[in-house]
Design a protein that fits this description.
- It is a single chain.
- The protein has 451 residues and is of the alpha/beta class.
- The chain has 14 helices and 17 strands.
- The protein has helices at 7-16, 54-57, 66-76, 90-102, 116-133, 156-161, 165-168, 198-213, 239-249, 302-307, 328-343, 346-364, 400-410, 432-450, and strands at residues 33-37, 40-43, 48-51, 107-113, 143-147, 179-181, 217-222, 226-227, 233-234, 253-257, 281-284, 296-301, 370-376, 379-387, 392-393, 413-414, 421-424.
- The strands form four sheets. A seven-stranded mixed sheet has the order 4-12-11-10-7-5-6, with helices on both faces. The chain has a four-stranded mixed sheet with strand order 1-2-3-16. Strands 13, 14, 15 and 17 form a four-stranded antiparallel sheet that branches.
- A hairpin with a 4-residue loop joins strand 14 (379-387) and strand 15.
- The chain binds pyridoxal-5'-phosphate.
- Residues 115-117, 120, 151-153, 223, 228-229, 257, 259-260, 285-286 line the site of pyridoxal-5'-phosphate (PLP).
Length: 451
């Protein structure tokens, strides 16, 4: 047995050996969470922090929820892992059945993988293969439409349909081309558009691309309602349903990436429900397991499924899989997550929290360097600007967002910004009191660092 490392040793190893995601390791200051309960994280020294971003947008019912913990323990007593390659287990089958019952109408089959990016890879590859082997094949449909500033994960297919220059430009030589349409950003409308014309102009731009290229396009990929990593950029109402109408009219499949916005986050179980949209593919991850374990799902329609059926020799099989896709421990905690949604009436209970967040954002909007506040359900964003009138941004190397979050940390609130955008995205189980503490820390952080 090795002796347990001391806190100092852990910090030293963490700085020197562990390579953290999206982190400049030359500047990294260890932030080591040793345990957690509810919405509170506890570090090695016993300091407590509210989890203001749901451990990166995935925690739903809080940490160490007894129902979720128990579900994993019970599954451990049966089996920890069964492959999904030609085999199955009762827990994963039950989860698939449950998801189909909850998802927008028409989504009837579930392909499991393990992360948001893989859920997208699956959808992107299936869309292409669908057009090649359906009854009336259209092998020319190999292209994709995606929005500017989209983020769909960090594997190469997901990066190809993504469009956040700062993350993705480096990998340009490895990516496939996509047809890009402007993101209908309500704060910074694309060139030539105004707040008033944003919806109609954005849909017209999409329609033009579809008119000209639909023969080459397999699918359009979209983050419904909110483009997360772009800075919680929010679309005007009607855009998603407009996209669905146009993609249907031009015979292009629609891939809804609900990795960040699904599982109750926007105030409905799935963001697509806000505009009564049924996509051809629905991608879920993050909150699917309540933020406990890596598990992802790509839900598809009967039409897609049918195109992959045939004799083995026909070669219609979907040759794609991940070792831990559909892992029963993940499925067990996903089922428990859905149970807790029902038992605790999570979505109904979110109402007053959404209202309280709106009140806080309205107050923050008055601050001199807050250019814009925006909200969808329990996603709140506060965009800092150098000049409120001209919307001139702070240069990103100034790390304004990080400065506010560092301040919040001193008040026991853990947040992670997106450049100049502060994100408030706590577990759905957050209390009003905890929400007040998070908003207060953000407010004092902004005042202290932008004075
Ligand atoms: C909309 C969206 N899609 C996909 C992903 C990728 O998910 P993962 O990090 O689990 O691969 C993310 C992650 O933030 C996301 O926000």
């Amino acid at each position: 047995m090795h002796a347990s490392p001391s806190p100092e040793q852990l910090r030293e190893w963490d700085r020197r050996i562990v390579w953290h995601a999206f982190t400049q390791m030359a500047e990294y200051e260890p932030f080591i969470i040793e345990r957690a309960r509810g919405c509170t994280l506890v570090d090695l020294d016993g300091n407590e922090y509210l989890d203001g971003v749901s451990s990166l947008w995935c925690n739903v019912h809080g940490h160490r929820h007894p129902r979720l913990d128990e579900a994993i323990r019970r599954q451990l007593d049966r089996v920890a892992h069964v492959t999904s390659l030609g085999a199955s287990n009762p827990t994963t089958i039950t989860l698939a059945h449950r998801l189909v019952g909850l998802a927008p109408v028409g989504l009837e089959h579930v392909f499991f993988s393990d992360d948001g990016a893989t859920a997208l890879e699956v959808a992107v590859k299936m869309a292409l293969q669908y057009w090649r082997q359906r009854d009336e094949p259209r092998p020319g449909k190999t292209g994709y439409i995606a929005l500017e500033n989209a983020y769909h994960g960090d594997t190469l297919g997901s990066v190809s349909v993504g469009g956040v220059a700062r993350f993705h430009a480096m990998f340009e030589p490895l990516l496939f081309d996509v047809f890009r349409v402007p993101a209908p950003d309500t704060y910074r409308p694309p060139p030539g558009m105004s707040a008033e014309t944003l919806l109609a102009d954005s849909l017209a731009r999409l329609e033009n691309v579809l008119k000209e290229h639909h023969d080459q396009i397999a699918a359009m990929v979209i983050e419904p309602l909110v483009q997360g990593a772009a800075g919680m950029l929010m679309h005007p109402p009607g855009y998603l349903s407009g996209v669905r109408e146009l993609t249907r009219r031009f015979d292009v499949l629609l891939i809804a990436d609900e990795v960040a916005v699904g599982m109750g986050r926007t105030g409905k179980m799935f963001a697509c429900e806000h505009e009564a949209v049924s996509p051809d593919f629905l991608c879920l991850a993050k909150g699917l397991t309540g933020g406990y374990l890596p598990l992802a799902a790509t839900l598809v329609t009967e039409t897609i499924w049918q195109a992959f059926l045939g004799d083995y020799a026909e070669g219609k099989t979907f040759f794609h899989g991940h070792t831990y896709g559909g892992n029963p421990l993940g499925a067990a905690v996903a089922l428990a997550t859905l149970d807790v949604f029902e038992e605790e009436q999570t979505i109904v209970e979110m109402g007053p929290k959404i209202d309280r967040l709106a009140e806080h954002l309205a107050r923050l909007d008055e601050l001199p360097h807050v250019g814009h506040v925006r909200q969808r359900g329990l996603i709140g964003a506060v965009e800092l600007v150098r000049d409120k009138t001209t919307k001139e941004p702070y240069p990103w190397p100034e790390k304004r967002g990080i400065a506010v979050c560092n301040h919040a940390l001193t008040e026991g609130v853990w947040l992670r910004p997106l450049g100049n955008v502060l994100v408030v995205m706590p577990p759905l189980s957050i209390t009003l009191d905890e929400l007040d503490r998070i908003a207060g820390a953000v407010e004092r952080g902004i005042v202290a660092t932008t004075a």
